[in-house]
Amino acid sequence: MQRPIVFVHCGSGEHLHLATRQAKLHNPDSPIVLLGDHSNRTLKFVDQHYCAADFFDGAARFAERYIHHSRNRVDWERFCFERWFILNEWMGKQDCESAWTFDSDVLVYSDLDEVAAELAGDALAYCTVSGHAMLVAARTGLDAFCHFCESMYEPTEQKRQRLADYAEAQLKRDGQGVSDMTALAWFRHESGLSIGDLSCPINGRFFDDNLCLSQGYDAVGRKRIRWRDGLPYATDTATGQLVGMHAIHFQGNAKKLMPAYSSRPDLVVLGSFLRRNLHSPIRRIRRKLKMIRASQAA
Which superkingdom is the protein from (predicted)? Predict the structure, then answer.
């Protein structure tokens, strides 16, 4: 099958609609696949929908040995690991050897097959230590990563102590603890596989780590985006040159900005943007009118 673009997401939300729509706009010939649940089975721009629970055998085995070392919710942090097992199992059952996968807070602006051609020698490619954007160039690479995640939580004193020590150091430093980003960082250095870094420019364009982080680009609160022919660019602070962006990651509260950064907004996108920008002012006006009426009545 042609290389799919896969989202693993349980629940519905406007950002999932925006992310799948954006991927389809820039990759019209690539199947958009959602490994989701009942609540998101009818999204307009999803070509293939599967129930993630049908590909949960490996994730269930991992969950049995998972030990929580994070201040985030247990179910959320564990699912960040489980999604890789779900994707790996789906790819195996579909005889799919290569795929792109993105979080639902990522907007894509490039032909991803062209990007993948530049990374053909890698097993996997992801942004430094984050899996919000990943190319599974070879499924053997993803399978190896899943085995690595399992090995991290082997019930041995040595493995448990390593996780506990790392978690203690991380929690003191930035409060993050152990996450799948820990696994991605360790795997990059310990697997011996060729792993690409999507954060580095590919054909003059890069995948954004986080809109609200500089990464060496001009930023005030978030990266200053320049638009050329409908495509986003960031300014390299060292050279002053514009660098194109294959994708932008709207992590956390930045999700509310996704409608404004979407390509060729449709009615759903426009409505979402207007609701976000008009909701608060309208509420303030209503409160003011209510106060005025109350004072007049008194």
Answer: Bacteria
